[in-house]
Amino acid sequence: MGKDSQRSTAHPMTTRAASIPLSEGPSVEGLSLIHSCSEAILRSNVRPILFITCVIAGILASTPLAIGAEQEPPDHVGGLVRIDTYDHTTVSIDVFVRDGDDNPVTGLKREQFHLFQNDSEVPISNFTVFSQAVFDPHSPESALGVDIKAGDQARLDEAKPIYIILFIDNQFLRYSDRNRVLQALRGSVEEIMRGPVQIMVANRQEKLEIVQPFTDDPRAIKDALRLLRMEKARLDDRDEEHQRIEREIQRAEKNKSHTRSGREQEISDLFTKLQVFVEEEGYHLEQSLSAIQKTTSALTGVTGRKYLVYVSNGLPLGLGKDLFHQFAGLDARTNRAALDLPYNRKRHYDSLAAAANAQEITIYTIDATGTYSSTPGIGDSESRRSTAAGAIDRDNHQMSLRLLAENTGGLAVANSDDFAAGLDRIRADFLTFYSIGYDIDSCGSDTVHHIEIKLDDSPNYKTRYRRTFVEKSMQSRVQDDVTAGLFFDVGENPMGIEVTTAAQIKVTEKQWQQPLTVFLPVPSLTMIREGDEYVGRSILFVATRDLDDNSTDMQRQVHDFRLPVDQYEARKTDRFPIFLRLLLNSGHHRIVVGLLDEQTNQISIQRIKTTSPDED
Fold first, then answer.
1. What pTM was estimated for this model as a whole?
2. Does 177 reside within a domain?
3. Which of 40, 87, 151, 530 suits 207 as a labelling partner, its CA being 20 to 30 A distant?
4. What are phi and psi of 450, to 5 degrees?
5. Does any domain span residue 6?
6. Residues 248, 333: one domain?
7. Which domain holds residue 22?
8. Consecutive sets of 10 residues in the chain, 616 residues long: mean pLDDT of each?
């Protein structure tokens, strides 16, 4: 079973974590115990989590089943039907085709599309044209046009639900701009939610808040958006500091009466203030990008079409880029590129887009600034340099939004005060597109494939689609299922695992240990014969989430199970136990456990809810 497996002949039935040494314990009521505990602090983005794993092994008091010398034991026992990860997989890519006026194009045929994976053209196996009629049965539009390999696939694709996250980033929003977009969103909710659509509303203030969990009720979404109109928009405060530094730079440029040493000190002081400002901006950017990624994790492992609509006044691609541009003008010796480089955050956006692509999430961005008539430094009586800096600031904040949208197949709504029209363009993507499929031979490991789609004889048409497809290993699929289980009742339990809880143990006024036991039926695990033992291995995944939508990082442990060959038949009605202890804050929690049988690739998911008392 691998170099990290440990053998034990003293006890007929064992289960152990591969990285945990075992020591013998006492025998209690016919159960000979091997007991060990490992304790570690595992940190998440939210809080430290104490995760204690106790592995117990023993023999139940019963009569062993003798196997005659003339009968050779089988090479392997137990387990469910193997799931082959090296078979053919059909990959579906949603392609949005628009004409020069940005109207949807639906009359194209399969032979007009050419699909390339990793620069090599591959045959198109499935081809479906989706229109509004698929999602809205009352639509006057014509019915779905279908030309695909298997007729049943069309109906299956039609039934795919749509999940939309509305993410309102108040850390990067101005009050008046935000409320204009919220009003447009509320006016578009009814239209957007026609068909199998569920929407979640997320808000980022000092921390991430799920204002409205996923629902198909338009009134609930409207109410959530109405509540957000009362929230503080925090970009207004940072605008004041931004303008103050800008004015100081402009005064320093005009006032050159200082001595050389005095001038150098003035510039040095200004640079210190500028650094403090951009470091604060960088902190808020990091928190916002983290919140976006955390929010999209709610859709990990969920089957359906998945979208994120992100609303802000833009995000800085380079921190303080416009201020550094103005500051460089104070001294001809200053290298602007050298100032910008340490504060460039493009790789952070690339990483976020890659994560969204891996989760098959398309990102749409809305720049709430509109036509930028009210942007600081634009349209006022400041100098031409300030106007130029304002243009740099606009481009700097829009480029990030375009990058996120374009790299995930979405679009960016910018430079327009007609937000309703922008939302109509986004809604058209939800309802009108081509689903193009192709077959690949799965390699069974995490692999990124690059996608390109070309159209014949369509120079005026624009195409948008996800540029990458991520093929996932079985372990990654389990992690996706566990993460999805924190938000949805998804995941199956073919191995019949059971998760039970025991009384919580108080640690502090606000923290409690929650003991758990995961039971795995012996026949559900594939066990391979190694000498006089059967050996099986499973991989355990655990994650938690509380009502404040704080969730832990995924925890993974490998467990080996050993059972003497001559004891297997007698033990088939038993279960392997794995003991866990989680450190939880006060409040309500959802705990999801996933178990993977390495031999069969079978996955079992179990969810439980628990409440830790509040001692206030």
1. 0.80
2. yes
3. 40
4. -95, 135
5. no
6. yes
7. 14-83+475-612
8. 38 40 29 30 35 42 41 86 74 93 90 95 92 61 43 49 96 96 96 90 92 95 96 92 90 74 84 94 96 90 92 96 88 73 93 94 97 51 62 94 97 96 94 92 85 87 93 91 88 95 92 95 96 96 84 88 94 94 91 95 94 73
